[in-house]
Amino acid sequence: MKAVIFDLDGTLIDSAPDLHAAVNCMLDDLRRPPLTLERVAGFVGNGVPTLVERCLEATGGLAEDFDRALARFREHYARSPARLTRPYPGVELALERLTLAGLALGVCTNKPQEFAVTILEELRMMPFIRTVVGGDATPKLKPDPAPLLLCLDRLGADGTSALYVGDSEIDAETAFRAKVPFALFSGGYLRESIDAFEPLYVFDHFGDLSDHVLGGGR
Q1: Are 210 and 98 in contact (CB under 8 A)?
Q2: Kind of pairing, strands 104-108 and 131-133?
Q3: What is the CA radius of gyration of the chain?
Q4: How far is Cα 166 from Cα 169, in angstroms, rounded to an integer?
Q5: What pLDDT does 218 receive?
Q6: Lower CB density within 10 Å: C or N end of the chain?
Q7: Domain of 34, in residue numbers
């Protein structure tokens, strides 16, 4: 194996608390009721515009000026995208182990590039990541395979020499369409039953993932 590529939200990091805070600031600007953390976490995964759209639909319907609502969310989120966000247990050590073993690591996420890089830098994970493909790096978001294929290309890998790690049905479909083996982190934002798809490997702690990869598992 040459490379391991990770989704970001719900996989490497629990970002829901900061997304939740920005969403409720946006809703307050629009004089709408707040949403719970659990509700917002359930909307994560399809990119920022879809997150905002789902939150608006849950609080009275789409705003007439959707672009303004989206801009307000981005402004609030940009102020502190990593204040409450934390890596999942074992992430830092797993990234270090995989890097020391000579594997190239990448991140492929629907989160906008600027936010993704900022969070990885603030949480001190960027030194382990060779490339980041954000949601605005290609014309289409995951589950379209284009972002993952771009990440593979940047790492000099392909479906026979890489593993994609994610937490959702979106990530599973992306890996399938890009013809890349998929490992599921079960502690993220999965909305469907694991039985709905067939990951190569399922784990609930990142120490198990690094053991699996470095032990020769695929």
Answers
A1: yes
A2: parallel
A3: 17
A4: 9
A5: 52
A6: C
A7: 16-79
Does 7 belong to an annotated binding site?
yes
150 and 198 belong to one structural domain? yes
Q: Angle CA(169)–CA(174)–CA(178) in degrees, nearest 5?
A: 150
Structure tokens at 210: 């690094």
- The yes-or-no answer on residue 7 being catalytic is yes
Beta strands at 104-108 and 86-87: parallel, antiparallel or unpaired: unpaired
State residue 190's pLDDT score: 82
The last residue of one of the domains, among 55, 79, 103, is 79
Q: According to the annotation, is 28 in a ligand binding site?
A: no
Of these residues, 7, 14, 18, 171, which one is catalytic?
Answer: 7
The reply to whether 9 sits in an annotated binding site is yes
Residue 193 pLDDT? 73
